[in-house]
């Protein structure tokens, strides 16, 4: 069972030791009843001062004052996502809860809750990913206490009837159908299904389609899911924008102190090593250019490991906008419409993958070959140092430019903390990024871009149906992609 | 509600050539705009400035007064292709690949939006890199190379968007584009900004050069700058205007004149295997700046605030009945609704439409959902809002609009739109003021004046075009069943919805194969 990322570190630079001392991890019994004041953290990359406190029940709170005109962003991160859905037949529940959390409590039933949110003119939403579920409120600063009250209430006291549960299950299936009409989603779903045999990363955050369809009958299971994962030790509250830390901590303590701990960690099975490359072709029931994904088994999120940080540089360097393959295939020969690589950056080892949309169906094999040649080259050769520096600069500015509003600051911190556990690790990440060398990049390619651990998926338009076997009435009725 | 990781990947793999603007846009505080409604005052082309010294970045925009309505007949897509080539092609200084490489270490980019009437190029960079960024950006419009390879690449992106993305993997955008093609039929608003397949194929590089020469002139551009910029940045931006021709040789396009809509019209876009995606609406003649616009805005927010569960249509169709993922309504153009939470900027238009968007649902529920939405629209026009609904929506909007313009780039976008509409001051501030004194009577009067449930264009993308056509024309009660029990009240209302007549005359119905959409 993979533990929290902090416990699996193989490399521990001195800087990290320092930061961990300054911002202790929350695991373990709280040592006092009063909220714990963690030392304010300041580093080189994160551009705003921030403070963190941990309540006696384990809930962590991060407050980040940023320049903003009366706006505040409030995020609640539940460190539970598709990854935590380990029980067979019950995938998709993390996402399903994202929906159910809008169904109200005894104190604030759905319509009353809705009216309060509406009257605040809040921009409120939620999303679910592989590792987390994040609840979002962007509000005027005067409404902060109201949000703290209704958020604490629904996290502590969510209540819903079976009928509302079943209705929402229908909406979730509708969302799946909407996503299934995108070839990008169909490919993404297939890559995960093929690449993982044991680990929960085999399914997307939507869940397997058969599980989504069966959801309406799993009311009781939904209650147990909530009890296990929606606990203070598994959550982080982030407040950014026009706020003062001290009164904000006090308000959050006031409303959340009664929340009882009781988190039960999921029993996730580690993915066994892949022994040989896989290759799968799938059909898309609509029109699309062919798309390919070449996915290697990558590492888990590990900013302390400079080679893992180098694997992020590698994705940009080998397949980003300044790469040879991008220039050749996209700009010069115009054989692909898009090409890019995504590094593996989730809590558990995930996929380091290259995706491309190819203009001519006859060109698929040649493009795949060119992608594999690129991988071989980065395993064999040292990359140009100036190009590595350019990528590092790009990644640094990319991060800084993404922190321009309370919503983007709170959103980015939520996403980071959801995976990393501690915001202080962002300083480790960018310190290590600055130190990445061409040798590190080559080492990352050698460690993770291994042929035997490759999964290739090719998506093409479905061939036209055989007219001799066609039953028009039946075809007309088949919901697209529902099979 | 969204699924984070795959939307990112899906968006990355999906080509949306008309949607590259880098989050550019919102209201300009203290922008000096002076125009009068009656006398055609000289165009106010002064640069829009929005200094924010505490911000780490600098935002720029250039609004060119040209758009897809200026496409010559048979060259639909020319404004789009010209704009995209300016924003995404090489200059006389550098080939495009070199520009990409120079921008790359800054992690900076720019984007362009070409709409019916406006072309806006804008972007943002860290203040440490602003000098180099601005030098590159201004060369895009002062010294475009119009390279043949860039031209083929961009055109092929446009064709792929029409032939693959819009027709086959984006049913909701297709439905909305279809609705505009019906409502604006016979005008230069009817084709999508990206053009048509035949139009794009007919365009030559010489057409692009000539279009640029005729439209990209000093008297047709307004610059905007904001964030942590220096005086040098402002002067360099303005100097780039001096490098353009002083006056445009192309005449300014007239506003489209729409034929009045009669009855209800139904277009079914037949797409094998597709679920149903529905859009319906009609032209409206109110605009930002008009008093009625703000009253109608409130009414529309109650009926269908975009991607907000407060939307009444959302409540009826999604929340209570779970038929689909969301149901919304609009009184201004709102492209890429599925990809954005807050309204876009720089899609200013002199002709607007009211529209309802019913997100994708199973074909067997399409007739019922259409009736439900139409019934709610009819009830809104007949009964108006209640005092309670009015007050709640008013309170909601007064705070909700704070989120419309939370970046400097967005504020620049709103300030540009204020110029477009000739609004003295700021549109969002004006709305806030209007809300302070607005009455229920004004709102209900605006609803009656501007919403017309009997004069509608309805467009449905569907895999069951003929079945749906027959059901809608026959106007027999639509029935619905649910996988889970529903309350008596819901079931009773279902009877009323099912029996609600749409009244679409058989003669006003057409079915078009998806492959014919935007062919020419």
Description:
The complex is a heterodimer of chains A (483) and B (520). Chain A is α+β, with helices and mostly antiparallel strands and 483 residues long. Chain A has helices at residues 14-22, 93-100, 110-120, 144-157, 162-180, 183-195, 209-214, 219-229, 245-256, 306-319, 324-332, 364-380, 385-401, 406-420, 425-435, 438-448, 472-477, and strands spanning 36-37, 51-54, 60-65, 71-78, 123-128, 133-140, 235-241, 278-284, 291-297, 336-342, 351-358, 454-461. Chain A has a seven-stranded mixed sheet, sandwiched between helices. In chain A, strands 8-12-9-11-10 form a five-stranded mixed sheet, with helices on both faces. In chain A, β2 and β3 (60-65) form a beta hairpin. In chain B, the strands form two sheets. A six-stranded mixed sheet of chain B has the order 9-10-8-11-7-12, sandwiched between helices. Chain B starts with a strand and ends in a 7-residue tail after the last strand. In chain B, β4 (109-114) and β5 (119-126) form a beta hairpin. Chain B has 18 helices and twelve strands. Mean pLDDT of chain B is 90; it is low at 1-40. Helices cover 42% and strands 15% of the residues of chain B. Chain B has helices at residues 4-13, 78-88, 96-103, 130-142, 148-168, 171-183, 197-202, 205-215, 231-242, 291-304, 312-319, 363-383, 387-400, 408-421, 427-437, 440-450, 465-474, 488-499; strands at 2-3, 48-51, 57-64, 109-114, 119-126, 221-227, 264-270, 276-284, 327-330, 352-361, 456-462, 509-513. At the A-B interface, α2, α3, β5, β6 and α5 of A face β1, α1, α3, β5 and α5 of B.
Q: Provide the helix percentage of chain A.
A: 40-55%
For the biggest sheet of chain A, the summary is:
7 strands, mixed
Helix content of chain B: 40-55%
Strand content of chain B: 5-15%
Q: Nearest-angstrom radius of gyration of chain A?
A: 23 Å
Number-wise, the strands of chain B total 12
Strand order of the largest sheet of chain B: 9-10-8-11-7-12
Order of strands in the sheet with most strands of chain A: 1-2-3-7-4-6-5
Spans of chain B of at least 5 consecutive residues whose pLDDT stays below 50 are: 1-40
**How are helices and strands ordered from N to C of chain B?**
EHEEHHEEHHHHHEHEEHHEEHHHHHEHHE
